[in-house]
Design goal:
The complex is a heterotrimer of chains A (96), B (140) and C (82). With 96 residues, chain A is an all-alpha fold. The termini of chain A are far apart. Chain C is mainly α and 82 residues long. Chain C has one domain. The longest helix of chain C has 29 residues. Chain C is flat and about 50 Å long. The mean pLDDT of chain C is 86. Classes of the chains: A mainly alpha (96), B alpha+beta (140), C mainly alpha (82).
């Protein structure tokens, strides 16, 4: 029971950090960097930032832990592989 | 043995999705996990290589956060493309190990795998170079 | 929590802006994938705050199936490009 405020603080910190990752990783999409650089940043935002957010939610609301754990698993695996697939498919363009 | 791991993974996903541990529910999940066909390649997959690869992927996650912070704090300098040798290769490449390798390379934000080079000798890796060199990933 | 939701919706606007502006199909695809992930995360947060299992389940399914669908689309586009 005494640990609850600590957990709340920690989860708030994680949520804020995840939101920061979202903004920082999505912002370069508006710029003129190369496509692969944008994919690197997108990996930061979508995979790592969202994973931080899910961890924060997991610490705060632990009634729904199976759902959040499944979300964490599928998020990390699918988003990573998805970045790879996008990179490969965009590189296979014939000439440009 | 590797098939057992795959079936266990399927059962785990089913239990997390349905989130109840009654006997009927577990029986349904077990039946479905056994009924789905196993890929034929998994039978010749050595367990030690699978475990080592899995452990390397888990170790890549804290490294990914370190690289993400490095990427956000200072702008990266230039982009290079390089080759990274494959670790495990007696005979034809095994699908699960290639999947784990690609996962390990791509989850770190400074590197993205771009596919295999030639007949499965090495991966082509796209890397963002920061101005200060990062500590190298262990096990390379 | 409300603040967090506002922030997430604000971050969601960025890739939507990219989709509206770019003409290159690959940039558009990457931005759409980003939208999909972010919407799924918003759904998860809302469901957890409201203690609602059904919305959360839909969020998890969107998270996994949406990414798989965009992957298939990317492969298809590569085939068309050739």
């Amino acid at each position: 029971m005494t640990l609850a405020p600590v957990f709340n603080l920690l989860s708030g910190l994680l949520l804020a950090l995840g939101l920061l990752f979202w903004f920082a990783g999505t912002w370069p999409m508006l710029g003129r960097a190369s496509y692969l650089t944008k994919l690197h940043y997108l990996g930061v935002a979508d995979t790592l930032g969202s994973a931080l957010m899910l961890l924060g939610l997991l610490l705060r609301f632990n009634r729904e832990w199976p759902l959040l754990l499944l979300a964490l698993l599928s998020l990390v695996v699918w988003n990573t592989i998805f970045g790879y697939v996008l990179a490969v498919c965009s590189q296979a363009r014939p000439r440009s | 043995m590797a098939g057992l791991i795959v079936i266990g993974l399927r059962l785990l996903i089913w239990l997390l999705l349905s989130a109840d541990l009654e006997t009927a529910n577990v029986a349904i999940g077990l039946a479905v996990a056994l009924a789905l066909p196993l890929p034929r390649r998994h039978r010749q997959l050595p367990v030690s290589a699978l475990g080592r690869s899995l452990w390397a992927s888990l170790k890549a996650i804290p490294l990914a956060y370190r690289e993400a912070l490095a990427l956000l704090i200072r702008r990266p300098g230039r982009e290079v493309e390089e080759l990274q040798p494959v670790e495990y290769r007696p005979g034809s490449p095994v699908a699960a190990l290639v999947f784990l390798d690609v996962f390990r390379i791509t989850i770190t934000p400074l590197t993205i795998a771009l596919g295999m080079d030639g007949p499965g000798r090495s991966y082509r890796v796209h890397r963002l170079e920061s101005h200060h060199p990062l500590p190298q990933e262990p096990g390379r | 929590m409300t603040l967090l939701l506002f922030g997430m919706v604000l971050a969601l606007l960025l890739p939507i802006l990219v989709v509206c502006r770019r003409t290159d199909v690959w940039h558009r695809l990457a931005a759409l994938a980003s939208v999909s992930t972010k919407v799924a995360m918003v759904m998860l947060v809302v469901s957890v705050v409201r203690d609602d299992w059904m919305v959360g389940l839909v969020g998890v399914i969107v998270l996994s199936v949406g990414n798989g669908a965009v992957m298939l689309l990317a492969n298809l586009l590569r085939g068309v490009d050739r």
